[in-house]
Amino acid sequence: HVQLVESGGGSVQVGGSLRLSCKFNYWPSSRKCMAWFRQFPGKEREGVAAITDDGTRTVYADSVKGRFTINRDIVESTLYLRMNRLRAEDSAMYYCAAGDSCRSIVARRFDAWGQGTQVTVS
């Protein structure tokens, strides 16, 4: 079974940068999409960015386009999210996930999740 562990969260000033990492116990060949989600208090989990298993296509939420970059290292079985020019409204719990499709970044398409890493921008 695929297991994911996020790291790299923390507190950062507005305009700063962070890189989140998601370590898989193995790269899940059965999943066609790897993604990052975030959840604000009292809100539903929302998609942030996704990348296809072959790395040929990426998808970003409008709110992070131009600021966040998703990539992956298959050899290291790690998914990354580089976050630049962070804003206070980016503060959330960030989760990585693996699913069957990058057609849309919706939680129901993903069945393997990490426990999250908190990002606080102030």
Description of the molecule:
- This protein is mainly beta and about 120 residues long.
- About 0% of the residues lie in helices and about 50% in strands.
- The protein has strands spanning about 5, 10, 20-25, 35-40, 45-50, 60, 70-75, 80-85, 90-100, 110-115, 115-120.
- Strands 2, 4, 5, 6, 9, 10 and 11 form a seven-stranded mixed β-sheet that branches. A four-stranded antiparallel β-sheet has the order 1-3-8-7, with no helix packed on it.
N- to C-terminal distance? 37 Å
Main beta-sheet strand count, sense and barrel state: 7 strands, mixed
Radius of gyration: 13 Å
What is the overall silhouette? Answer: globular
Number of strands: 11
The whole-number mean of residue pLDDT values reads 95
The helicity comes to under 10%
Order of helices and strands: EEEEEEEEEEE
**What are the low-pLDDT stretches, counting only 5+ consecutive residues below 50?**
none
Structure class: mainly beta
Number of helices: 0
Strand content: over 45%
What topology emerges from the helices and strands here?
Layout: E1 4-7, E2 10-12, E3 18-24, E4 33-39, E5 46-52, E6 58-60, E7 68-73, E8 78-83, E9 92-99, E10 110-113, E11 117-121
Parallel strand pairs: 2-11
Antiparallel strand pairs: 1-3, 3-8, 4-5, 4-9, 5-6, 7-8, 9-10, 9-11
Short description:
The protein has strands at residues 4-7, 10-12, 18-24, 33-39, 46-52, 58-60, 68-73, 78-83, 92-99, 110-113, 117-121.
